[in-house]
What does this fold into?
Amino acid sequence: MPSSTSSSKSPALVHAKVLLGICALLVLFFEICADYLLKHDSETYGRVSQQYAEAVKVRPSRSGEPASVLMVGNSLLMEGIDVDRLQELTSSKMRIYPIFLEATGYYDWLYGLERLFRRGARPQVVVLGVGVNSFLQDSVRQDYAPMMFFDVRDVLGVASALKLDRTATTNLLLAHSSVFWDTRSVIRTQVLRHAVPHCRELFTLVKSKPALPPSSELELITLARIQTLRQLCDAHGAKLIILVPPTRSSEDAVRQMAIASQKVGVDSLVPIDPATLSEKFYQPDELHLNSEGAALFTSALATYLPVEIGGPKSASSHN
Amino acid sequence: MLFDSPAYFLFLIPVALVYWRLPHRAQNILLLLASYFFYGWWDWRFLALMIGSTTMDFLIAQKITAGRTDSNRKKWFVLSLVLNFGILGVFKYFDFFTGSFSTALETLGIHHIPLPLIRVILPPGISFYTFQEVAYIVDVYKGRLEPARSFLDYGLFISLFPHLIAGPIQRPGHLLPQVQKDRAFDADRFFDGLMLIFSGLVRKCVVADNCALLANAAFGGQFGPSNFWIVLIGTYAFAWQVYGDFSGYSDIARGSAQLLGFHFIVNFRQPYLSHRLQEFWRRWHISLSTWLRDYLYIPLGGSAGGKWKTSRNLLITMVLAGLWHGANWTFVVFGAIHGAVLAVERCLFPVKTKQKDAALTQHSVGVFSLWAQRILTFNVLCLSLVFFRAASLPAAVQFLAGLSNFAWRTEYASAFFMLGLFSIPLFVVDLLMETSNQEYPFANAPYAVRTALAAFALVILALFSGNSLNAFVYFQF
It folds into this structure.
């Protein structure tokens, strides 16, 4: 044992031990608080967990019953579709089970769907709508998704697919198992919303928008990803439909994505050509549809989605 | 393994617990293995490079000492420098210079010249451990240091994990004896180490990561096309980001070292309170600036050859310091701006001793003038940081071109408020530390007060950290 200049009763050592003890207690306290707040105050958690629980129970419909449709996506669908209205308009043809989580993309849903299937979900149709940029981005949402969409094997799969380093993988695993670690960025955002005036507008502005890869790579990546999703859905007896919601200045990318879907034999649905939608149908962020745009999109979806569900595999663009 | 990740603390705590139960030699073996594990956590492939480089300099130092003639000693010395800077050059600068040469040829109308690019990932920490190895070889060659007799000691001096990836660059004369001698557990220093870690975490996860949000948005174009306000938000936010980030890293490194009984040199001393750029470099990344002074500026001739030679030496040193940060012309321009301003300052304000300089700032200049100079220096620094942060020279120029446009949006007010929320507390802490000359805030307060402050820091971390997308800025160097 090396020599020591301090006895075990030195005030510094006592306080170091006290400090480490306080740290351990605070970490426990944060975990309990985060868990409580998540289950009692988080709108996102409440909504997604309820939608998820419903989706796990989805089964193929019997003959003559409306088709069971699992509809998954991000804020583009959440803001752009009035699900109740869509269900009302299409009630005789389909039963919709939505799961919408903001800021999710391809990898969130690839592994999210895998887990849903593992847990017993058996929809007849899977509609995925995340927009072209999010479909092509190489990331997963760091909060909510690791806890709500992934098992440990999914986290490891995500880490491998995204070539995450060991530190990032550990962070993702921790986000999967610790509510506090998973939701700490949400906590920070909530605190800042109270501390910084007009924080919501500021955060909307500073949120980085994923850039599209060069068009030469775009098609290859899209093809590979749609193929993977199709294989997953085929393996569980579900038909995959790629829903492409409109976003400003995305006409080219939307067209390329539709062509790529067609090449791998997956239906893609573009209910509204983005070129036909003027600025007045979008929110100030120019990304999400406003209520007027959502009404238009929902109505178009109610017209064309039942056709796609029943029809042959093709790329459909309507305006 | 990032210092602000849980993985690091899951690594550090068991290492520290086992470490203090071992005798000296076993402590060194444990630390060497732990350091290699820490380094290999990023990429095991680069471990071989670091061990190879360490072994090479260990052996060459022996040869230098054993050399019977000056020419023989010099031969080994030059070989070491060539190998060290050769490795650094290949891994860090080869593609940069080849690419720049190719662009230059194309500008001259010479096309389709096939030039090789190696396209390798930059090994983590290579700039830092190379500089440490070079310092060791120079000190041995100059006779200022006895070469390490044990590879274990030398290997640990190079790879000790708290400083391995981003410094502070340790001087052989400071750290090597600490590795070689018995280290006694000192509870006061252990407690100070914990406090430094908390201080560093708050600087990095609260100040830097939140300022990064604004800086990234300004430089990334999310605020829209550049204008005066965006330049202000972007540069100020980046200035506080990079300071919080690197001083936070340095605090965690120093704190971790203190938990293991080592002492690292202080790397930052309230740099934004500098009234001139000369003073800034005495307060910012001190381990690098003193390294450059001792191993580059002074060997070049320093200030011994008159005004012009001094200016030349300053310019060369700072351009190379800029290039050390990364293989990009933006860093060269960053260094050139600093070199030019330092040369001008040298002409306008001839160098004084530290004591006289301190006296000048406190008494003869006057408070108003001192603060005016501090504000001017900070803004010159911010201007240079545009080149440090921008992805390319055209991007930096385009960003600065917005300065003549004053179009205002209400979101800018929120951005300034947020910037103030995270930077002003650090600024106040700096003012406190400037007057008290402490290593961390309230270092002389009673233990109970400091324990409470650390617990408060943990609460602040829980509430305000959460931006996990920002690795330490200096890890890329």
Q: What stands out?
A: Strands of chain A lie at 67-73, 94-100, 125-129, 239-243, 267-270, 315-317.
